[in-house]
Amino acid sequence: MYRCVALLALERPATPPTELARQANFEIRAASASEAPRVICDARDVTDAIRSPEVSEAASRVAADPGVREALVAKQRELLSRGDWVAEGRDVGTVVAPEAELKVFLTAEPEERARRRAAELGADPRIVLAEQALRDQRDSTREHSPLRPAEGAVVLDTTGLSVAEAVERIAELASAASKLEQRGPE
Question: Considering the entire predicted model, what is its pTM?
Answer without folding.
Answer: 0.74
